[in-house]
Write a structure and sequence with these properties.
With 328 residues, the chain is an alpha/beta fold. The chain is 33% helix and 25% strand. Strands 3, 4, 5, 8, 9, 10, 11, 12 and 13 form a nine-stranded mixed β-sheet that branches. It has a five-stranded parallel β-sheet with strand order 6-2-1-7-15. Helix 8 runs antiparallel to helix 9.
């Protein structure tokens, strides 16, 4: 294989490692550049929407995730202040930590021959950009995320708590661990010195939900979170963007990881075949349209009467998608 036939992939999160697996499955040689070390914790709701299962199966990792005890999530419960509403998910979803997930996909890529590297060297061949979301944004109305693991009684519901322009998701993951992850406006978090224990205690139903649990790691923060995509800029792109680098939607949709692995798989195929970047982006756009709008978490939430109470609490475009009567 000549040097410029090698595909360089920047970032070995779910999108980059999926791209590496798919590119090697399509006969390409791959350099996988990652600046952090796995396993590592990552701020994430750790909710896997059902759409991810066939993708991870094709990539050869789903059986490993099941073997490591991914929790089955069958219900969604929404809390708006003191009001509560539950709904069954139409398909089973899963709770699985990023600590385990990212490492499993990465190790599978290495097993298939992807060459791990810490730094990117100048490269002539195809490049897949899978370095995650763009973090640049001016101060102002910015959102930040936080998460920690807890131990204690497990459950089969993903619960979402909305309060003071924050929302917090509670989901069981593997080994009976409960993941607690949320988003809040910078102004409120800064006023509270990013003390997340204090923040969650401001919401009575959430504090009650957490009361039988003990936090087993320190709170992690991330941000700012900027929701954006590169679909309109496709003609100017010189690499294949995948995952959050292509499109970062609000975590509330529960479809970020499915989108990352789907676009990673496609990026690997297109780059291995040296097919045009613009065609790749158009394909992603067509494929992502559905998971974004019919993610079963989303659909279950939309079916609850409490969806109407999201008004004023979440940005209008979330609400638009949430309340679409007939998802395309
Ligand atoms: C608060 C929050 C909660 C979320 N909850 C959920 C959820 O419950 N379910 C869901 O499906 N999605 C959720 N998401 C979305 C999900 O986390 C992302 O969609 C997913 O991580 C995207 O994967 P990725 O591989 O594109 O990016 P990432 O996971 O960010 O991976 C990018 C990788 O690139 C590496 N990297 C970056 N720059 C470089 C560089 N220059 N050189 C080398 N390596 C580099 C990073 O170290 C990282 O490992 C959530 C997101 C947030 C912020």
């Amino acid at each position: 294989v000549s040097a410029d036939a090698t595909i360089q992939i920047i970032g070995a999160g779910p999108a980059g490692s999926s791209a590496a697996i798919s590119a090697t499955q399509n006969g390409a040689r791959v350099q996988l550049i990652e600046r952090s070390h796995f396993p590592r914790h990552k701020v994430c709701g750790e909710f896997l929407s059902p759409e991810i299962v066939p993708v991870l199966d094709r990539l050869g990792v789903w059986s490993l995730i099941e073997a490591q005890g991914a929790a089955r999530i069958r219900r969604v419960v929404l809390h708006f202040g003191e009001r509560e509403r539950g709904s069954r998910l139409s398909d089973t979803a899963f709770g699985f930590s990023r600590y385990a997930l990212d490492d499993l996909i990465f190790q599978r890529a290495i097993e298939l021959g992807a060459e791990p590297q810490a730094d990117a060297m100048p490269h002539d061949g195809p490049i897949i950009s899978a370095a995650g979301r763009n973090q640049h944004s001016p101060r102002g109305h910015r959102l930040f995320g936080f998460k920690a693991h807890f131990t204690g009684p497990a459950d089969d519901a993903v619960e979402l708590f909305f309060f003071e322009r924050c929302y917090v998701g509670v989901t069981t993951v593997e080994n009976g661990i409960t993941n607690v992850c949320g988003l809040g406006p910078e102004s409120l978090l800064a006023r509270m010195n990013f003390d997340i224990d204090d923040l969650v205690s401001r919401c009575r139903p959430l504090a009650e939900r957490l009361s039988p649990l003990s936090r087993s790691m320190k709170w992690l923060n991330t941000g700012p979170l900027i929701f954006r995509n590169q679909f309109r800029d496709a003609a100017a792109l010189t690499s294949y963007p995948a995952g959050d680098a292509l499109s970062f939607v609000d975590p509330f949709t529960g479809s970020g990881l499915a989108s990352a692995t789907i676009t990673g798989e496609l990026a690997g195929q297109f780059a291995a075949g040296k097919r045009p970047i613009e065609e790749y982006v158009a394909r992603c756009r067509a494929v992502l349209h559905r998971p974004f709008e019919v993610s079963s978490l989303f659909r279950a939430i939309a079916s609850t009467r409490l969806a109407a109470h999201l008004s004023g609490l979440v940005p209008a475009d979330w609400l638009f998608r949430l309340t679409r009567p007939n998802p395309a």
